[in-house]
Each structure stands twice: as structure tokens, then as C-alpha cells.
Amino acid sequence: MIDADVKVIITGLDPDEERLPGVAKILAKPFRPAQVVDAVQGVIGM
After folding, report:
1. Please, what is the Cα angle at 39 between 34 and 45, to 5 degrees?
2. pLDDT of 18-31, one tens digit each?
């Protein structure tokens, strides 16, 4: 299951990035969407 924060990272449409967890923000910045999905799934153990 993908939570709301993960969907926000993938879409990149969140106007308020400060609401995201620190790890999520780090993952979102330097990676492309496919890499973000892989990284987040690894973090949340999917």
C-alpha cells in the first residue's frame, strides 16, 4: 500500500514540501520518479 506522502513524492505536486518526512524529501529531490518508487518501497519494506 502506498501512503499519501509517497504519492505526493511521485507526482511532485505538493506545494507544501515541509509536511513531508525528512527521508521522503531527501529521496524526492535527487532521484527520478522510478528511482523514488524503488527507494521508498525499500524504506517501507515492500
Report:
1. 125
2. 555 656 665 555 55
For 18, 22, 24, 30, the CA distances from 7, given in Å and listed in that order, are: 15, 16, 11, 17
Whole-model pTM? 0.25
Domain housing 31: 4-43
From residue 20, alpha-carbon distances to 6, 27, 42 in Å are 9, 11, 17
Domain count, the chain: 1
